[in-house]
Amino acid sequence: MPQRNAVIDLLRKAGVECYTRKEWGSKQLAAYIKRRSTHPMPPAPAKYHFLHITVTNDTDTVLTGKAGARQIETFGLSSPPQVSYQDLVTNEGRYFQGQDYGNKGTHTVNDKRVPPFSRDLNQEGYALALMQNVNDAVTDKQVRVVAMVFAARELTGWVRKGAPVYPHRKFAWKGCPGDKAMARLAEIERLKNDFVKKGTIMPTQPTETRGKALDEALKNLRLAKKNAKSAARIAKIQRAIKAILEIKPK
Ligand SMILES: [Zn+2]
């Protein structure tokens, strides 16, 4: 079995802002450890990635993100309640740790009886939930981090290489993970496969080598994009952001 924290360790190395259960203030720290013996996943790498949405308030700061994770923990179907999903990702690209890898979550049941899938999909895949509501933006940064999480699962051996990404709505009579996420699903899967093919989720232009001036320019552009009123203006700013992100390190 791979290391339980292998995914989060790899994400951190690749520069993703991550918060462990302890860091976001989980009230059930011992329950996740106990679940390792009561609800273990089968030993082989899992077959699927599942994408969900928490349908909770969008969080913009680290503090509200931590509070969001604590709130989602109380909704868990396990007893005592634990986060149903393995991973939570905000649209700022922040990662909050959920249920342990190697533990069964309580996220995906094949209520629609879609063949040839089995009924309890919790033991065949790991779930990531976008921590937000259906009308909140699914951002480029979030798409990238989600793809990095899925790729990290495959690169660390928790999930089979090339495993498909399925939206919850495929199996349940729900809108989950929302139309905005559905619109980015193919892109997420493509990015995930690109990372796995490269064998790494490390950025090609790490922020530390991109330099402070560029980071500052990016920050200002993103602020401008947020405040821009016209679609043409937003598109122009988006192109500028893209150009900066493509600058290669020295
Ligand atoms: Zn769902």
Your description of this structure?
The radius of gyration is 18 Å and the shape is globular. It is of the alpha/beta class and 250 residues long. A hairpin with a 5-residue loop joins strand 3 (87-89) and strand 4 (95-97). The model has no long low-confidence stretch (mean pLDDT 94). 42% of the residues lie in helices and 9% in strands. The chain has 2 domains: 6-198, Lysozyme-like (3-Layer(aba) Sandwich), CATH 3.40.80; 207-245. It has helices spanning 6-13, 21-24, 29-38, 62-75, 140-155, 179-182, 185-198, 207-210, 212-227, 231-245; strands spanning 18-19, 48-53, 87-89, 95-97, 125-130, 165-167. The chain has a 6-stranded mixed sheet with strand order 1-4-3-5-2-6, sandwiched between helices. The N and C termini lie far apart (38 Å). Helix 1 (6-13) packs across helix 5 (140-155), helix 5 (140-155) crosses helix 7 and helix 9 (212-227) packs antiparallel against helix 10 (231-245). The protein is built from 10 helices and 6 strands; from the N terminus they run αβααβαβββαβααααα. Zinc ion binds next to loops.
Number of distinct helices: 10
The total beta strand count reads 6
CATH architectural grouping of the largest domain: 3-Layer(aba) Sandwich
What's the CATH class of the largest domain, please? Alpha Beta
List low-pLDDT spans: none
Largest β sheet strand count, sense and barrel closure: 6 strands, mixed
Distance between the termini: 38 Å
**Which ligands occur here?**
zinc ion
Q: What is the approximate shape?
A: globular
Q: Any idea of the CATH topology of the largest domain?
A: Lysozyme-like
The string of secondary-structure elements, in order, is HEHHEHEEEHEHHHHH
Average pLDDT for all residues: 94
CATH superfamily of the largest domain: Peptidoglycan recognition protein-like
- Going by helix content, strand content and strand pairing, the class is alpha/beta
The helix content is 40-55%
